[in-house]
Amino acid sequence: MRLPTCVVLLLCSLACFGCGGKSTDELIDDVKSPQVGDRVKAVRLLPQRKREAAKVVPALVEALKDSQDDVRWSAAIGLGYFGEEAHDAIPALQEAQRDPDARVREAAGVALSRIDPSRFSAPS
User: Which of 14, 80, 120, 121 is most buried, by CB atoms within 10 Å?
Assistant: First the structure.
């Protein structure tokens, strides 16, 4: 089942209430936090840092390996926001298309279609 984009954006906006104005580096550190909530918030906030794609994209790629479905799902969604700037994430997103969680698989497919639309079509 596909979530409407507005719902995803609303969830990302709500997550920002707990961000406390953290720097990009602090959010990247939070991606490695032992607290699931910190990791989820971080991967949902990092896509807002488009100007720092060189730092953010690798952190989101690492988050695709997280043990928690919500972290992996949010990371895949976030990578799609970077478009072609996330080109280096393609192999990890292709791997995520085999994730046990259907939401992660779908989000990875959408992200791939945004990163390289000539190679990947959006999931139907």
Answer: 80
